[in-house]
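Friendly challenge for the regulars: who can give me the structure tokens for this chain first? No prize, just bragging rights.
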Amino acid sequence: MGMIGRMREDIAAARLRDPAARSAAEVALLYPGLHAIWAHRVSHALWRRRLRLLARATSQVSRWLTGIEIHPGAQIGRRFFIDHGMGVVIGETAEVGDDVMLYHGVTLGGRTRDSGKRHPTLGDGVAVGAGAKILGPIMIGEGSVVGANAVVTRDAPADSILVGIPAKARARVLGEDTKAVLTAPEYSI
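First reply, four minutes later:
Bragging rights claimed.
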């Protein structure tokens, strides 16, 4: 899929996840989370080509314009959506799967100054509530939900609900009726 196709996919994902989104034009022009993601795609491409200073400069300009800091080394999947993104921080070695959603004030941060993998990995379909902090080289399994203001420092299996400080993982038990409701566009998280 080319760049324009990815941009269309991002716009569609934002419209699906945000009931306040009125049109594709509104989303494309006025959603800073989307602008930060697009800028990250550019800075990440530069980073992979070893144009590190230019990548960091692009990332910095995006941070000034959007209030969202995504390190150009972070690996971000498709249909990623940041809603009300002010204060979001995503570290250099973070990995974010497809169909992930973050709210404002989320940190995907490190816990040490060691080199190598030091930031979290989020599986596909993870939703992270406002103010949550996910710290260290941990894995949050696909389909998990991290509650607002949770502080997560340990791995969590797929389909977990993580709440509290420190966050504790609880199984997300969903019947078929519940799954249908939670995956409907008007209830997507």
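Residues 177-189 have pLDDT under 50 and may be disordered. The first strand starts at residue 69 and ends at 70. Your move, everyone else.
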